[in-house]
Amino acid sequence: MSVEPEPQPVPARDPDLSDLVDASIRRVEDHRILTGEAKYIADFGNDETLHAALLRSPHAHARIDTIDVSRGEDHPGCVLVLTGEDLAAEYDPMGCGITAFEEWPLAVDRVRFAGEPVALVVATDRYVAEDVVQRIDVSYDRLDAVVDVREARKDETVLHKDVGTNVAAAEVFEFGQVDDAFETADHVVERTYSWERATGLPLETAGVVAEYDSETDSFDIFSNMQLHTHPGRNTLPQVLGYDPSAVRLHCPEDIGGSFGTKITSLQRYCYLAAVASRKIGRPVKFIEDRVENLQGGDVHGSDREYEVRLAVDDDGSIRGLDMSFLDDFGAYPRFSIHSVIKPLAAVCGPYDIEHIRYGYEIVLTNKTCQTVYRGYGMPQHTFALEKIVDDAARELGIDQTAFRRRNYIEPDQMPFKIPSKNVYDSGDYPAALDRLIDVIDEKERREGGLLDPSTVAERRKEGKYRGTQPSVFLEPSTGGNDWPDRMRMEDPIESFSRDQVDEPPEHFRAEVHPDGTVTASLGTDSAGQGHQTLVTQLLSDELGIPIDDIEVDYLHSGQVPNEMGSAASRMTVMLSGAVAGLSQELTANLKRLAAVEMDCPVEVLEYERGAVINPADGARLTLGELATVDQEDDGTLTSLTHEYGFPGTDVDDFDDAYVNKLPIFATTAFSVNAPIVEVDVETGAVDILRYYTLHDAGTAVNPMMLEGQVHGATAHGIGLALLQEFQYNDIGQPVTTTLFDYLLPSIDNIPEMVLLQSETPSPFTVNGSKGAAEGGTIAAPAAVAISVNAALEPLDSDIDRIPISPKYLRARLRGSGSTE
Amino acid sequence: MQSEGPTISDTHLRDIDVTLNGADHSMAVEPRLKLSDFLRDEVGLRSVRVGCEHGVCGACTVLVDGECIKSCLMYAVEADGASIETVEGLRQDDGSLHPIQESFYLEHALQCGFCTSGFIMAAKGLLESRPDPDRRAIREGLAGNICQCTGYQNIYRAVERVAADMEEP
Q: What's the gap in Å between the CA of B106 and the closest CA on chain A?
């Protein structure tokens, strides 16, 4: 890359914000990581610890005839072998997202995907455990596997006989008069699109060390599970038959990435390690290896077939959107309907569309099950939406950018309630689009730029087609947690009322020590986002004390009764609120303590930079001195727990969504993306020459870390757009089981990103911040797709699926007769 | 019938002598023990992270006799007689960070940090052969390491920064 580094525009600062908000504080996590001292889950365990390995099914669909473990048990290093029958005799199945279905951590009677665990072995070390796995003999009766979603929904081969259908859930939502809009519109454009299976792969796989204590009949389970304190997601106590206080889930301070994928995969592994530890009376450790992670690690993402229609009038206004899709969830609906209905939170994207129909069908096939992955249904929705808008413009002969601009929600409409009832908080979408277009015009359309018309023409002669299509993309962030219960409700939604809304708060603690330092404790986990830095920065700012005087640690599940945690791009907003709320309470307490000590009315006292001051006489008591005084009593005034409520519940605009159990996202970040792509029509390769993006996540608390999230999320999106795809053959065998087949973007694939930031504060959050960790992943696949469309326009060709692999694109171009 | 793997009784321990971050170590190891597992589990050098065990992700990258090696692709017995460098050996005598570590910190070139040791060792290997790499050389030098968090933008900046700092007298 011989390009001059782009100057990074400095975001505007809100003058009302104090010193440390909007400051690129460097991270407190980094020193231990850079020196190798960080302790990830694989570094847990002690000399007593035993090691587990799993025997997994080689077949996509089969009845288990017999399992003979005797040769395994004869191995001198073998300590325990467990099968599904052993578990079924004593425990309950794992939690399943849709309650009609049952899933065991080890298959009982039948395997439903290649890679499904069949037996657990515990041995003296992992090498030996894998030796023992080889000595377990299973005889299977193979059954027909169903791998195609359209075949599966015919129910000729049913995966779960007791449920009787492969269609696990289906709904159609209708907002406005959709049929009327489509009947009366001047044009209707209709397309189908597909999105192949992919996911984010944190470099650290899932892992657990479970320690059962027979004296207290309770467990300490250390794992890199995401949302380890969330009572609804962490169903371990129930399935093990214990009280939640007896199953303590702990998270390491350092987790090697998650991106959503470590929410559910750890359910299986923690369950198994806990049961094994209880049987053996020693700690049991399991670290998933990469091949089992790719093949059967329960981490695949959305896998969809879309049918989309757009109703458009002659004046270029979009009247209606009609979208439905099938989502291949794999063998078990491990997670519920969140990912298929989350897009309702931004169903119309940045466009003002009045009449909308949105339908989904969750279909089961003989593949590994889906989990949560960054964006969680939104990247797929955004791709389908941006594609139909793009394709409609082309079909109707309207300029794609002008067509979009014609339909954008205008800034004076904010906050804007969309037809599906979520509320966009703030943003000037057309202005953001114009700003990025101006930058590209200036930098790239001039002589010598990547889009210099003479260069573009020159490259075309060599079969290299360049293009870009700027567009606006939304990121519903700061996700609520009431709506996902939609599927678990016993009563009809019509009977649900606003006062039944249950949003878990952010649980946060802080304790002041006599030396003046503060220990803060988080009710959730962190997988690289930098929550320790964020809290340190916010607390330092609120209390006016040095960063070095603050430490941040993590609580275990038994200490946190009610918490949502780190998901749905919540933490910046939630921790900002939690730190502000706790600090307010703490400074009030400090003044009360000081008033007694100084023998003066509390009202005259002021808190300033780590001390309470009486301006009248200059008397001053520091945090440490006041903590000492407090600890001579019961210490409760300087050791606090604060539960910060979800901000969406305070905004009446969200009530419509709440009572209808429709997705609520308290903030909506936005971005403009314009990758400049070059398509080699001979090889089908897409090269992103430079990736322009403008990102707005409200007030930036730590612009450096925000930029890091945008970079990382965008790189994920580029990987999704061009590289990543889990493939199965027609008997359900996964054929992408190594990182040689499932391609992650390396430094070689990721282009230079030119990132501009702007700050449109959210009116709904304490400091104007918005969640921002998923926007790049939501936007980039669609942005690349419509830019490839732009590049291929002279060939009258386009694309209709993600990923845009060379093989697919070559076939597509041949089909259109434009090459070879 | 599935094939049977080797068992404990099949294995014969082999003595190896290696220099780890400048210190000599002699140990008896199973021939099948991967170098990555040897460094982590037998020696306790936990900066060596294991991400894929098939040589793609690069999290376990170490320098073996000055060369960048993915330690999951090498057996410990193959390292007999070699000098191995890991992140644990990078700290300066006064305890401060190595310039590469410092640059990664200043440029926010890490998030979850699981890949970071591998990137630091790969960057060290690169800078020893190309003290002033351009972006193309950085790309080629680090193409064997995967980072899933940073999108690589700040990794470029970190390597460029350390190269620039090293140039200064």
A: 7
